Automatic annotation (TrEMBL):
<dbReference type="InterPro" id="IPR050259">
    <property type="entry name" value="SDR"/>
</dbReference>
<protein>
    <submittedName>
        <fullName>3-hydroxybutyrate dehydrogenase</fullName>
    </submittedName>
</protein>
<comment type="similarity">
    <text>Belongs to the short-chain dehydrogenases/reductases (SDR) family.</text>
</comment>
<dbReference type="InterPro" id="IPR036291">
    <property type="entry name" value="NAD(P)-bd_dom_sf"/>
</dbReference>
<dbReference type="Pfam" id="PF13561">
    <property type="entry name" value="adh_short_C2"/>
</dbReference>
<dbReference type="InterPro" id="IPR002347">
    <property type="entry name" value="SDR_fam"/>
</dbReference>
<dbReference type="GO" id="GO:0003858">
    <property type="term" value="F:3-hydroxybutyrate dehydrogenase activity"/>
</dbReference>
<dbReference type="InterPro" id="IPR011294">
    <property type="entry name" value="3-OHbutyrate_DH"/>
</dbReference>
């Protein structure tokens, strides 16, 4: 499938899942805007490298997704938006009575409020261009809960609910809005935790992965950033034109338990 001529904005895309999705969109021919809150040479070099690798336009636009005006500014600066992927996210783990207020506020702002602001700014642009795809990266924790992750789970459930609402508001237009709910995904961040956990529990890599990290993922395999990219491409395809207001789990069976 080709997304040639389409412009895609992926929030939080200088690493991990966002970068993986951006790479698959560029591979499919879309022009891509990468984003994070930093503004380093490395960020711009990443965009230049991808442009060369895939032969599409790739720009890096700095914007802090914890700030509503910067979320809206990202869409404005991009100058066009056919595909919006809300991916930026952070995590903090603590019991609710000890949860730091500033962490709660940051998680709700980056993981949930940013999607409100970017969707509000992107929808008029999509309407004007007569086509749009919104893909919100929620989580298995948008559908289920775990202890100590109150802010993350509240935000991800919020993203799932917001996706349904936007789908209803755009139901009679050529625009869809869905949420992808990944289980545990092998990102550089997750990979980096493996050696420490091996030492902590005196376990092999295989045991750490299967019995510590993937206890709730029945497949005992991580999802990959390429698989999440592929799911995003599918949601952008004509085959998915009637898929809107729903969640797609990429979680090795987690939510079937
Ligand atoms: P990551 O830390 O590699 O990526 C997060 C991205 O968000 C980075 O590019 C980071 O720079 C960016 N970001 C953070 N704060 C930002 C801010 N204030 N403004 C703009 N960008 C900001 O993590 P990841 O695992 O790739 O996670 C990406 C998304 O996928 C998150 O929403 C996360 O909740 C979700 N998710 C991850 C997993 C997993 O197992 N890795 C599972 C389910 C859902």
């Amino acid at each position: 499938m080709t997304l040639s001529g389409k412009s895609a904005i992926i929030t939080g895309s200088n690493s991990g899942i966002g970068l993986g999705i951006a790479r698959e969109l560029a591979k499919a021919g879309a022009d891509v805007v990468l984003n994070s809150f930093t503004d380093s040479e490395k960020d711009h070099a990443l965009a230049a490298g991808m442009a060369k690798e895939f032969g599409v336009a790739v720009r890096y636009i700095q914007a802090d997704m914890s700030k509503g005006d910067q979320c809206r500014g990202l869409i404005e600066k991009a100058g066009g938006c056919d595909i919006l992927v809300n991916n930026a996210g952070i995590q903090h783990v603590a019991p609710i009575d000890e949860f730091p207020i500033e962490k709660w506020d940051a998680i709700i702002a980056i993981n949930m409020n940013s999607a409100f602001h970017t969707m509000a700014a992107a929808l008029p642009v999509m309407r004007e261009r007569g086509w749009g795809r919104i893909v919100n990266i929620a989580s298995a924790h948008g559908l289920t809960a775990s202890p100590y992750k109150a802010a993350y789970i509240a935000a991800k459930h919020g993203v799932v609910g917001m996706s349904k609402t936007v789908a209803l508001e755009t139901a009679q237009e050529p625009i869809t809005c869905n949420a992808i709910c990944p289980g545990y995904v092998l990102t550089p961040l997750v990979e980096a935790q493996i050696p420490d956990t091996m030492r902590e529990y005196n376990m092999s890599r295989e045991d750490v992965v299967k019995n510590v990290m993937l206890t709730r993922q029945p497949s005992k395999e991580f999802a990959t950033v390429e698989q999440l990219g592929g799911t995003t491409i599918f949601l952008c395809s004509d085959a998915a034109a009637q898929i809107t207001g729903t969640t797609i789990s990429v979680d090795g069976g987690w939510t079937a338990l």
